[in-house]
Amino acid sequence: MNVVLISTYELGHQPFGLASPAAWLKAAGATVTCFDLAVSHLDRDVIAEADLIAFYVPMHTATRIAGQFIPRVRSINPHAHLCAYGLYAPLNADYLRGLGVTTILGGEFEEGLVAVYRLLLPSPENRSRFWGEGLWVKQSEPMISLARQNFLTPDRSGLPHLSKYAYLDRVDGCKKVVGYTETTRGCKHLCRHCPIVPVYNGQFRVVPFDVVIDDIEQQMEAGAGHITFGDPDFFNGPGHTIPIVEKFHQLWAFATYDVTIKIEHLLKYARWLPVLRDTGCLFITSAVEAVDDAILEVFDKHHTRADFVKAAALLKDNGLTLNPTFVAFNPWISLSGYRDLLQTIAELDLIDHVATVQYAIRLLIPAGSKLLDRSDVQQLSGPFDQAALVYPWAHLDPRVDLLYEAVLASVTEAQAAGFSRGEIFDRVWAITAHALNDARPSPRPDRASTPIPHLSESWYC
Ligand code: SF4
């Protein structure tokens, strides 16, 4: 039986979310074809011959793009069973079902995909489950599964080569091919604005040590010199992840890697930072989100502005590069609060560390967001927008929304023109100062910028 797995976008990485289920489905006997539409095209003939077509939707952008492709796939093959899986599938179940998707799988999805495949195999028992043109009446798998699975080594053989994806710019003239893997999924925290929370609800699941190492090995053999560990938080289970990076360094001492760790964990597990540095960690992404304690409280981030300052110093002392991310525009930030964010970034000497898209990140309120439990969010957000897949919101101070639009336009234009991070910071500062009617000059230090290692595709949701 023919199965097609489709990824639309995964931040420039070769999708783990295709490679992992491809291994499971092949082991179950399926003929699997993978399409990563971020770097390749659909093949009409393969789609037309498919019995099961599954879209991987791990994030907001991926889901929106999938929404454009699903009707096209349906028109090529009206008989295939359509599935959507990944974090955003259950959050947008109604929308996806409206497009003709029958099965929705969130959380740990590999077992569910194999179960759907088995149910589609022709057999007298299965025939009774079907009606019309190959669609069964209702989904038999749970929409969200947090079952502990016996992971298999992802099968990356059907995916575009790693060189087609985002690369590491080490800034010393060296560009490295980047691989991607996951040692855990989900998160043990409950940050209110995070899309992981409605699905994993404070739980995380572990990918076994040997599976992770085997997955890295196959990517090293394919030419990778750097690995992104895509865990939502690498220190959710340091007892699991530290031995992995120690083994990583023992096997591939020439290679580097990056991880994502929350501010709270950077402080709590500071003793592990030297190990990260000594095993090849090049930079750590951390979702700082805001520098205003009241906003951090709304997000339930479990860190304060002072914690951020401490963590930035800690990483510097340990020779590790911080890659901070922000939800710069949100309903609780003021014009002066936005300037304070810029000022803090400058004071901590992080201007070169901040990917410029971060200055224009606006809070997304997806379906299922825990923010919707708050009465102020209910009041300021409109009805769910099916096209944008968010609850749209407007700031109580319209000047903040105007500032957002001006910053977004300026950053987009400056990025296209090849401006440096420092130059873009100056532009954003000037726009903000204008909005505040305050001609204070940019606090950027009067010295040459220090480029830092980063991936060619910036992190955003
Ligand atoms: S720590 Fe990060 S991944 Fe975990 S819930 Fe908070 S924002 Fe989400």
Q: How many helices?
A: 18
CATH 4th-level superfamily of the largest domain: tm_1862 like domain
Intertermini distance: 34 Å
What is the mean predicted local confidence, pLDDT?
A: 94
Unreliable residue stretches: none
User: What is the CATH class of the largest domain?
Assistant: Alpha Beta
CATH architecture classification of the largest domain:
Alpha-Beta Horseshoe
- In which order are the strands of the major sheet placed? 16-15-14-13-10-9-17
Q: Give the bound compounds.
A: iron/sulfur cluster
Structural class: alpha/beta
What are its keywords?
17 strands, about 450 residues, seven-stranded mixed β-sheet, Rossmann fold, binds iron/sulfur cluster, pyruvate-formate lyase- activating enzyme, 18 helices, single chain, globular, alpha/beta
Structure, described:
- The protein is α/β, with parallel strands linked by helices.
- The strands form 4 sheets. It has a 7-stranded mixed sheet with strand order 16-15-14-13-10-9-17.
- The chain folds into 2 domains: 2-140, Flavodoxin domain (Rossmann fold, 3-Layer(aba) Sandwich); 165-455, tm_1862 like domain (pyruvate-formate lyase- activating enzyme), CATH 3.80.30.
- The model has no long low-confidence stretch (mean pLDDT 94).
- It has helices spanning 16-27, 44-48, 60-76, 88-91, 93-98, 110-120, 124-127, 197-200, 209-221, 238-251, 263-268, 273-278, 293-299, 305-317, 335-347, 375-380, 398-416, 421-435; strands at residues 2-7, 31-36, 52-56, 81-85, 103-107, 130-131, 135-136, 144-145, 167-169, 175-181, 184-186, 204-206, 226-229, 256-260, 281-289, 321-326, 454-455.
- It has 18 helices and 17 strands.
- It is globular and about 75 Å long.
- β13, α10 and β14 (256-260) form a beta-alpha-beta unit.
- Bound molecules: iron/sulfur cluster (SF4).
- Iron/sulfur cluster (SF4) is lined by residues 187, 189, 191, 194, 196-197, 232-233, 262, 287.
